[in-house]
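Consider the following assembly input.
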Amino acid sequence: MKKNTLRLGAAVAEDAWSAERQHTVARIALGRSGVSLPTRQTLAFALDHARARDAVHGELDTQALARELAGHGLPVLQVHSAAPDRACYLQRPDLGRKLAPDARLALQAAAPAGGCDLVLVLGDGLSARAVASHAPRLLEALAPALRGEGWSLGPLVLASQARVALGDEVGVVLGARMLVMLIGERPGLSSPDSLGVYLTAAPRVGLNDAARNCISNVRPEGLSYPLAAYKLMWLLRAAWRDGSGVALKDGSAAEAAYLALQAIEGGQRGGGKPVIC
Amino acid sequence: MAHVITLGSHRYRFADLKTLLAKATPSRAGDRLAGLAAASAEERVAAQMALAELPLRHFLSELVVPYETDEVSRLIVDSHDAQAFAPLAHLTVGDFRDWLLSGQADSAALAAVAPGLTPEMVAAVSKLMRNQDLILVARKCQVVTRFRNTQGLPGRMGVRLQPNHPTDDARGIAAALLDGLMYGAGDAVVGINPASDSPDDIARLLHLLDGVRQRYAIPMQSCVLTHVTTTLELIRRGCPVDLVFQSVAGTEAANAGFGINLAMLGEAHEAALALGRGSVGDNLMYFETGQGSALSAGAHHGVDQQTCEVRAYAVARHFKPLLVNTVVGFIGPEYLYDGREIIRAALEDHCCGKLLGLPMGCDICYTNHAEADQNDMDTLLTLLGVAGVNFIIGVPGADDIMLGYQSTSFHDALYLREVLGLRRAPEFEDWLQSMALSDGQRLLPGAGSSLLRLAEAA
């Protein structure tokens, strides 16, 4: 038998600029195996993608969420969009923006007489995980200000297979003067659980994104709950006065109280462009 | 004009050209969403058969979007080169496919007929082509463009280095730029998608890129991908603008949704030409496109998304661009649902763009809500490499931390160079060698390179 004389050297070539990693969360200085990604790096990427995929396809546990929200003392209603399942939801954004007929009837039956100042909708969007993890915490941060300023609140609405604009139909049916949709944003590779907050004054069916204001990337690694709550209250007051939409510019970040809160919270670490759901 | 075909006992009728084109299109989410797709698999083939019989000349008389109300239609009609079209004038769409695949259609012949082709003729023939046809025909097209280096030469492929950062942080961008250059990327362009749209922020990024280019004498062009009106303002301010970027679409209304029209593109093009910054050529427009953009703007006029996309190439062609990039999988699953649809669309875009004479590259990419993964991108990357794509995108680790989607990595480009022997732009290749980062073909470790101090300039 011939003796095997193959000798193995280091297969992974490390990169000389790994110190640059401190300046960005981009995947730099990964090294290479030949010209390809080292095993460790290809698996790290696979894990992040798997988490993002699971976030997109995960279902919102509305029962558990309803229990968690019971402490607010508001009726909690569960509704479904006209998209029957995830595959349809992903391909038919128009259906995700419409209530299923039975959901509309149920909301009509529960509408408060004389309407209300504000309805909060919690929609799964593209990351049920984001809503389940962050929406209850954000509501806790909001509750004292909403109570203190005397906003009359309609029922809390939990919406499955929901797009942002679904909130407007909910708002119309419930007679809401302002509508806030808390919704899971499209998962990024390093942010599978980013919560988006969309505000519409005088909601009606058929409005587009230009009629709304958005707070993006709400999560502990992004915009913290207290900062997001501060921004939302600022926008609510401004939109109550002047209406929502592109003409309303978020001026909250210049206020002393926001800056003080930011000093405690450490500010927004994440970033990037808001992703419309 | 109605188009009719009988298959067995069933008579299929297509009310007009745009309906025929839509029904003949391989299935994809955006056309289903728009209600334009064929109702059955048989109807699709019936439409393809009817389309195959249609004379190419017919496309000069029946427009899919009216001449009177759409400036892209007017551009297509008014710039049509009848002399270049003459040799093809007697062909049907089906004959045209056969000719494209034949040995007669070599690089020179394809370049000669390009000005005689309209986007709709090219879209039509692509609907009759299988993926291998799209690869074979595209590979025969050669589109060479120049600014500070030469793109599109046979056997070569460029990479756009895309060093994005969520807050446009200079050190963060410089770190990703260094990473890309050390991996031999950046010959097509170093192009930043800024998070900010403020002219002051864009100016800062332009100076950052130009500073690095000059300090290391890199034969490259840079670009900050902001709205064309912002770029025009920065040119007037005296900022170092190499390439003018703009997203474009295939209808006047969709372009209005982007806040642009042909006159604005023309003005920016002229202003950048006047700077005279190109050293080996003056192709300086950088356009991005993607199937579904017209539909998403509610501006598709009942035209299928692939035909709309090819019409966008007529806009691009008018300005002799350095680079045209179809950002194929960025738009999401409501337009291209899965890896199969993304791959098909990318091959169509690349081939159709090349047939019209464009320097086509592709952002081989997907979002996390599409039914696609890295394996689909590997497949598409390899197919486009074989098809002779002019350039691809390079993002650190394939993960764009600003735009939140997955593109191709610097490693992916190296893979393609390794398996297909694809080389970089010659001027850039020489520069890498002069910096001891490459032996001309393969990368060297570069541990002692002066480039490692690049970030100090940021």
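Residues 65-265 of chain A form a domain with the Rossmann fold fold (CATH 3.40.50.11240). Ask yourself how this observation constrains the way the partners meet.
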